[in-house]
Design brief:
By secondary structure, the chain is α/β, with parallel strands linked by helices. The chain has helices at about 55-65, 80-90, 110-120, 170, 220-235, 265-270, 320-330, 335-340, 355-365; strands at about 5-10, 20, 25-30, 30-35, 45-50, 70-75, 95-100, 125-130, 130-140, 140-145, 150-155, 155-160, 165, 195-200, 205, 215, 245-250, 255-260, 275-280, 290-300, 305-315.
Length: about 375
C-alpha cells in the first residue's frame, strides 16, 4: 500500500499477477482472525477454529464424517459456549478448558458461575483455571489436549480463544493502531491518513460509558461501522454512536446476556460503585413455563449513573438486556431505570419486571 501515491498493490490469487490499483477513497475492512497460539500440535487435523460460516460448515462436516465421541473446547467465551451446546445436542461427550475461574469472562465471576453450573447440568465437564500446553496427535490427527494439569482425550478440538483484528496491512502502511492493535479511527471511521477509512472487526470503537477507545468484534458493531464509513465516503457526515458491549448467547435452555462495564473494568477506571443481584422469574410465577432469572446491575456511587448489567436465566431472560443497554445510551441513573414504564402481562413478566426489581434494589444501596 502506497499512501502517498494513493495506490494499493493487488495480487490475483489464481494467476499470482500483481498490479497497482489507484484509489480516491480507501476503506480497510479486513476483519479479524481467530486466535491460534503457537503451541505444539495445534495444526493437527481435528483442531478447528470457528470464526466464520465456512469454518462452521467444515466443523459440521467433520462431525458428520468422523462421528467423534469426545470433544474438547478450548475457551469459555461465546464461541466456546455455542459450540458446547451444538456438540452436546449431537450426543458427544464435551469437556471445556478455560484459564479463568469461570466461563464467560465478559461476566463477573458470580454470574459466570451460573453459566458454568448450567454447562455442568447439560453434561459438560469443565476444567477451569487450566491452560492448554499442547495437543497430542497420531497419524496427523488430534488425540488429546494437554493442559498444565492433565491430558484430556479428544477426537475433535474446538478453539474458542477469541479473535484479533487483521490490522497488519494498516500497520505496514504506517497507520496508528489502538486498542488490541485495532486500527485507530475517528467517530466518522476515518483513519489518521487522508482518504483512508477503516470499519468492522479490524477497527476500534469507543465505549459510551467510559468515553474511551474500545475494541469489540461483533457483527452488530461491524455493520454499523460499515454504514457510517460508507455514508461518509459518499460525501455524507455520519458519526458512529459508540458501543456499550451488549451481547447475548445461550447454553441449551439457559440464556446469557451482558452490557456495559463489569466489575474488573469499573475497578480499572477507578470508579466507586455499588451493585445489586436479584433473583426473580421470567413470567408471572403462576404462569406455565415461568422460570428463574438472575439480574445484576452496577452503578456509580454519588451520581447513581448506571454502569452495566448482566442477566442469566431461562427463556425470556436474555433480551431484557436491551432495556439496560438503552438506559446506558441514555445515561440513566439506577433510580430512573427503576421508574421505567415497562410492559406487564403474566405470559411475559411478573408485575415488577426483574430489571426494575434490580434497579430498585441498587437505588436503595446508592
Amino acid at each position: 500500500m502506497d499512501i502517498r501515491r494513493q495506490q494499493v498493490r493487488v495480487r490475483d490469487l489464481q494467476s499470482t499477477r500483481e498490479w497497482l490499483e489507484p484509489y480516491d477513497q480507501l476503506l480497510i475492512a479486513t476483519g479479524a482472525s481467530a486466535l491460534k497460539p503457537n503451541i505444539p500440535g495445534i495444526d493437527a487435523h481435528g483442531v478447528l477454529s470457528i470464526n466464520s460460516l465456512q469454518s462452521g460448515i467444515e466443523a459440521r462436516r467433520l462431525v458428520d464424517d468422523r462421528e467423534p465421541r469426545r470433544a474438547v473446547i478450548v475457551g469459555g467465551g461465546y464461541i466456546g459456549l455455542e459450540m458446547a451446546e451444538a456438540l452436546l445436542l449431537r450426543g458427544i461427550e464435551v469437556a471445556l478448558v478455560e484459564r479463568s475461574p469461570q466461563v464467560m469472562g465478559t461476566l463477573d465471576l458470580d454470574m459466570g458461575a451460573l453459566v458454568s453450573a448450567a454447562l455442568r447440568r447439560q453434561g459438560a465437564t469443565l476444567y477451569l483455571e487450566e491452560a492448554v500446553a499442547g495437543f497430542d496427535q497420531k497419524n496427523g490427527w488430534v488425540q488429546a489436549v494437554v493442559t498444565n494439569q492433565r491430558t484430556i482425550p479428544a477426537d475433535v478440538v474446538i478453539l474458542g480463544m477469541g479473535v484479533a483484528p487483521n490490522s497488519a496491512l494498516a500497520d505496514e502502511a504506517g497507520m496508528t493502531l489502538g486498542q488490541k492493535k485495532a486500527i485507530k479511527v475517528s467517530k466518522r471511521m476515518q483513519t489518521e491518513i487522508e482518504n483512508v477509512w477503516a470499519a468492522g472487526d479490524c477497527a476500534e470503537s469507543f465505549h459510551l460509558v467510559t468515553g474511551k477507545p474500545f475494541y469489540v468484534a461483533l457483527g452488530t458493531v461491524a455493520n454499523k461501522h460499515g454504514r457510517v464509513a460508507g455514508e461518509n465516503i459518499a460525501g455524507g457526515n455520519a458519526e458512529f454512536a459508540g458501543v456499550v458491549g451488549t451481547a447475548v448467547t445461550k447454553v441449551c435452555s439457559v440464556e446469557v446476556a451482558r452490557t456495559g462495564l463489569q466489575i474488573k473494568e469499573i475497578t480499572e477506571q477507578h470508579i466507586e460503585f455499588a451493585d445489586a443481584v436479584i433473583e426473580s422469574t421470567t413470567r408471572a410465577g403462576y404462569y406455565p413455563e415461568s422460570g428463574p432469572i438472575t439480574v445484576k446491575l452496577l452503578a456509580e456511587k454519588g451520581s447513581g449513573r448506571l454502569l452495566g448489567g448482566q442477566i442469566v436465566g431461562c427463556e425470556g431472560a436474555a433480551k431484557r438486556i436491551d432495556i439496560i443497554a438503552t438506559a446506558l445510551h441514555a445515561g440513566f441513573t439506577a433510580e430512573q431505570v427503576s421508574g421505567l414504564d415497562l410492559s406487564y402481562a403474566p405470559p411475559y413478566s411478573p408485575l415488577w419486571d426483574p430489571v426494575l426489581i434490580a434497579a430498585r434494589q441498587l437505588a436503595k444501596k446508592l
